[in-house]
Amino acid sequence: MLTAAFFHIAQHPNVLQNLRLELDPLMPNQITGHKLAELPYLNAVIKETLRFCPPALLLLPRWAMDDVEIGGCIIPKHTSVIVPNWSIFRDARYFTQPDAFIPERWLDPTFRLEQTFGKSAHLPFSTGIHSCIGQTYGLAQLEMRLTLAYWVSAFDAVLVDPNSSFEFEEHFVLSKAHCRIRAYPRDMTYV
């Protein structure tokens, strides 16, 4: 997930600029998990990264305990049901411009889909008793916030190839992500 975030930040300089507007006023001793949890744009970048490149492409299978009807389809008892995160997160019924990286979708009320269906459909860590323990105790979010905050504060980055796309191998989880960026200490000029 962090590789995907670094890629999209390097690909979208406005995202880096907006993150810095939020992070730069903080003193180093203010960069804590609690403080970062309050920063709307940082959290929107994380949510958008999780939507665009979910850590689990499919949620764990669940079994129907009884016959149930969902959306006009009958799911018989004992049927395995799998939620395809990747497909849902790229579905125009739930997300405006689903193939675009737009952190603002999580903040701006004009993104009506994201404020209604999208919020319900965005479950990168699953939900309920089977949700990811990292989400339940906030460990995954804490790690993402802290790493991104320190990285954005310390580095400028550009894509090695501005026309490149984010590549990864598809397994049950997103793995072996490839991201070619050049990172430089912040405020250093580069060619």
From TrEMBL:
Swiss-Prot/TrEMBL cofactor(s): heme
Identify the domain of life: Eukaryota
Record keywords: Heme, Iron, Metal-binding, Monooxygenase, Oxidoreductase
The membrane-spanning stretches of this chain are none
Per UniProt, heme binds at C132
Where does the record place a coiled coil?
A: none
One of the entry's Gene Ontology molecular-function terms is:
monooxygenase activity
Task: Please name the InterPro entries in this protein's record.
Answer: Cyt_P450 (IPR001128), Cyt_P450_CS (IPR017972), Cyt_P450_E_grp-I (IPR002401), Cyt_P450_sf (IPR036396), Cytochrome_P450_monoxygenase (IPR050121)
Q: Which family does it belong to?
A: Belongs to the cytochrome P450 family.
Name of the protein in question: Cytochrome P450 3A4
> What are the leading ranks of the lineage?
Eukaryota, Fungi, Dikarya, Ascomycota, Taphrinomycotina
